[in-house]
Amino acid sequence: MATDALLASASIILLGAVSKLLADRFGVPNVVFLLGFGILFGPEVIGLLDPSLFSDALSTIVSLAVAIIVFEGAFSLTSSRIRSASTATLRLVTLGSAITFLGLGLTIRFLLDLQWSLSFLISALLVATGPTVITPILEQTDVRENVKTTLETEGIVNDPVASVLGAVIFSAAALGERPFTRGGPVDEEIAIEFVTQLGVGVFIGILTAICVTYVLRNFSETPQNSRITAIATALISFAIADLFASEAGVVSVAVAGLLVGNADIPYEAEIEGFSGDITAIVLSVVYIILASLLRFEELVEFGLAGVAVVLIAMLVVRPLGVFLSTVRSDFTRNERLFIAAVGPRGIIPASTATLFSLQLAQANVENAESVVSVVFLVILVTVVLEAGGAPFIADRLDIVPMTILIIGGSRIGRTLAERLETRGENPVIIERDVDVVSELRADGYSVVHGNGATTAVLEKAGVEDAKMVVAATSGDDQNILACQTARTKFGVENLLAQVNDPTNADAFEDLGVRTTTPTLATVDTMDDLILRPSFFAWLSGVGEENDVTEVTVGSTSVVGSELGTIDFPDESTTVLIQRDGKYVIPKPDVVLKNGDVVTLLGTTDAVEKAVAMLSE
């Protein structure tokens, strides 16, 4: 028996590594492969992985794994990223969650004909999207930072809330003597228990965070000590909270991770990297083990009604919650569609549903097995379709931002990154100073640590998908070497460099690198203020109310048309056309050709519409 368990454990770790390799190779979140391997090697198919081998230790393994996963997700959610999240994010974790809870509860009750208690127990668990699924999706999918922050925040907040809400309904209603009905007598009891468990988790999480922050600041002298202390914090916080209140452990870990991650502690970057590696391992263990629990006959038991529940969850409830929560937000229509399309359920509902189902069965509750069956059905379909299809959905909706690499995290580099992010670009800063890297990450910037002139670091930062590389360090030698590497090794043609010594400008331009010098840039700005004060004042609003942008003509509806016949939006105009390396004044009788680069000027909304007309 011990040998079988040892072989199964080693196989799970190996399959987890293979899943990660396949995910990186095919650009699909590794959760899809983990679930597939769990089913394939579980009792239903090959039979190598039998959850019964782990006996009573299964719930403990799952609980500790969940503690590490939630802690790591909360630790990386810095206060700057939370502040950068729009009010739509807050509505998504409140209004959106309420819509999911009520909508799915009613759907399950009437389509599957389960009792009220089980219907809302299942819907409570399915509120959680969770970092265990969202994080792998976002690692494989390029979207704007505010979209990432919204999805990550939703997952981290909803995980503990769904867990506690599910536990309260489970104990107060599903196992209670009185039936759970709308407006029934257990409403007040459920509310009190929910607040109590939430409060216990928050209190222990705060207390744990205070203690570990003090220890790290005053006693940790090496990255190794800090990493071990952080992981131990996640485990002990979960265990203590769960001891006092069932399911409060998830809340405690989330609070502790959030507070410690935003505290001024030594070796923060090393802790975050180590926690990510540990999370990758425990994700493999938990997903594969839980997937091996799947029983095909239980999934097909509900027939078309079960399929209808999943479709309503994906196509009605989730989009309704997202679109109501993001009304008047700064998300584009396609970004709202992407958020609505990406709501896969993860480890918290899977693990909690498994434990609840077993206890309900022991208590002889009717339809007890339906809890795990419905939850697993929703998880399986949403993970495969939504997690697996997220990169393709993002590409189809055309919300994948082109990366702009900025080499150098100086004041110039970070200010440029901030402006690019505001305009919806995807800037990534490369910085070799560890302290600066930690500072930039704490402020919410996407940062890669290393020398931006080396091939490996450029590749890690995503230079192969970059539309531009900007060298903005204080050393001209570093800047010119970075530009040479980007061009010769990766074929990047669009290069821009900061030239600190104006006498070096010719050397850059001989390589085809556009340049700017701090001295000349300041002089040009002053000159514009003297000669063109009104136009300069207008340009100062670019990115907010006004915009100037270039677009390559590709729409068949405008190619071959005279410029004067095209009905551009009001408050936008064409100011320049570039064709075959030459500039053309945009007169009304100029005929647009495929590949022309048109410069548009106007208000932000009008320019966006004009860009769409010329490019689509």
Detailed description of the structure:
Residues 401-520 form the RCK N-terminal domain. Its main location: membrane. The structure is a single chain. With 616 residues, this protein is of the alpha/beta class. It contains 25 helices and 10 strands. It is globular, with a radius of gyration of 27 Å. The model is unreliable at 177-186 (pLDDT under 50).
Quaternary state of this entry equals single chain
Mean pLDDT: 80
Q: How far do the termini sit from each other?
A: 62 Å
Shape: globular
How many H/I helices?
25
Sheet with the most strands, sense and barrel status: 6 strands, parallel
Regions with little confidence, pLDDT below 50 for 5+ residues: 177-186
How are the strands of the largest sheet arranged?
3-2-1-4-5-6
Helix coverage percent: 55-70%
Pfam families: Na_H_Exchanger, TrkA_C, TrkA_N
Subcellular location: Cell membrane
Transmembrane segments: 57-78, 90-112, 118-138, 198-216, 228-261, 273-296, 302-325, 337-358, 370-394
Domain RCK C-terminal: 536-616
